[in-house]
């Protein structure tokens, strides 16, 4: 068993990471900018105050611990300064990025081409600059993560509230429990300096999701379809080749029905 893991930024994903992480690490700590308010679900001895924008809190991240970075790695200048304090050779560092890193330009090709980890990324985005600095200079492993869903984060609500419309736009999703398992597998087996796409492997259009969901759940009444972007189709070939059959939540519709019932 490994010794120490610190989860930097303990929001939605971190809540699902804590139980499995405790089986892989003897000691798991979680950070927050306001630990007394946001980390009540864990014991005080495992709470750490950390704010990337408050340099005085950086010393709370002890050397030698593995790190799982779960908030946007920006602004880039602070990411770089903080990274200098990290002693990357003595630890494993996994950073959660986003599939929004991929630059698709104005392409209207439809269906959109598959995007693997070699596709161009948009280095004008500050968080992409931060992630790439950590990957290329500190041996960080960057996970480019699709839309995260799970209990309390229900894509059907995004349709109901009009946040998304039932368009032909492709979306890539990952269940938070699978993401948690992938984070831990990456800490254990990921190759330093690599990037991996993370999604359930099945891009779907919002229209397909809406139509299928409507057959099961009558209450998903959407806004009009106005979004005519092609979206992205994220390839997870590398993820599968590197970590084996790690996705357990492949049936989006079964998962959505479960989430609706909770
Ligand atoms: N949500 C999605 O669909 C999605 C998709 C792709 C990628 N991602 C990425 O995946 C990661 C995890 O997502 P999530 O939805 O679990 O995140 P989340 O719920 O927003 O949790 C991240 C936590 O990090 C802490 N934080 C924010 N800014 C910070 C800073 N400057 N310094 C230190 N801590 C800070 C906040 O907690 P405190 O307020 O307690 O400090 C926040 O709750 C994020 O990087 C996100 O951008 C998300």
What does it look like?
The structure is a single chain. With 262 residues, the protein is an alpha/beta fold. The chain has nine helices and 13 strands. It has helices at residues 12-24, 35-38, 76-84, 126-138, 155-160, 176-189, 206-216, 237-243, 252-261, and strands spanning 2-8, 25-32, 47-49, 66-69, 93-98, 114-115, 141-145, 147-149, 170-171, 173-175, 195-198, 204-205, 233-234. β4 (66-69), α3 and β5 (93-98) form a beta-alpha-beta unit. α3 packs parallel to α4. The longest helix has 14 residues, at 176-189. It starts with a strand and ends with a helix. Bound molecules: NADP nicotinamide-adenine-dinucleotide phosphate (NAP).
Identify the notable features of this structure and list them briefly.
seven-stranded parallel sheet; binds NADP nicotinamide-adenine-dinucleotide phosphate; two-stranded parallel sheet; about 35% helix; alpha/beta; Rossmann fold; about 260 residues; 9 helices
Q: What separation lies between the terminal Cα atoms?
A: 34 Å
pLDDT < 50 runs, ≥5 residues: none
Kindly name the structural category.
alpha/beta
Question: For the residues shown, what is the average pLDDT?
Answer: 93
Looking at this structure, what is the CATH superfamily?
NAD(P)-binding Rossmann-like Domain
Number of strands: 13
What is the CATH level 1 assignment?
A: Alpha Beta
> What's the CATH topology label?
Rossmann fold
CATH architecture: 3-Layer(aba) Sandwich
Order of helices and strands: EHEHEEHEEHEEHEEHEEHEHH
What number of domains? 1
Portion in helices: 25-40%
Q: What are the distinct ligands in this entry?
A: NADP nicotinamide-adenine-dinucleotide phosphate
DSSP helix count?
A: 9
Q: How are strands sequenced across the largest beta sheet?
A: 3-2-1-4-5-7-11
- Report strand %: 15-25%
Please give the largest β-sheet.
Answer: 7 strands, parallel
What gross morphology would you assign?
globular
CA gyration radius, whole angstroms: 19 Å
């Amino acid at each position: 068993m490994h010794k120490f893991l610190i989860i930097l930024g303990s929001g939605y994903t971190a809540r699902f990471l804590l139980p499995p992480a405790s089986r892989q690490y003897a000691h798991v700590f979680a950070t927050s900018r306001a630990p007394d308010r946001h980390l009540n679900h864990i014991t005080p001895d495992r709470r750490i105050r950390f704010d990337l924008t408050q340099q005085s809190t950086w010393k709370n991240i002890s050397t030698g611990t593995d790190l799982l970075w779960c908030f946007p790695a920006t602004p880039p200048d602070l990411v770089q300064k903080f990274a200098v304090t990290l002693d990357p050779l003595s630890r494993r560092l996994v950073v959660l990025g986003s599939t929004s890193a991929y630059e698709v330009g104005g392409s209207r090709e439809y269906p959109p081409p598959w995007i693997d980890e070699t596709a161009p990324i948009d280095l004008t985005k500050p968080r992409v600059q931060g992630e790439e600095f950590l990957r290329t200079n500190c041996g960080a492993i960057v996970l480019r993560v699709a839309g995260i869903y799970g209990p309390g984060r229900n894509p059907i609500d995004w349709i109901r509230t009009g946040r998304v419309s039932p368009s032909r736009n492709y979306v890539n999703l990952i269940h938070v429990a699978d993401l948690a398992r992938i984070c831990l597998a990456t800490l254990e087996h990921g190759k330093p300096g690599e990037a991996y796409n993370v999604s359930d492997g099945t891009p779907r259009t919002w229209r397909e999701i809406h139509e299928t969901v409507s057959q099961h759940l009558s209450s998903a009444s959407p806004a009009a379809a106005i979004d005519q972007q092609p979206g992205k189709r994220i390839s997870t070939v590398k993820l599968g080749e590197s970590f084996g059959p790690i996705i357990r939540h492949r049936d989006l519709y079964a998962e959505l029905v479960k989430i609706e019932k909770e």
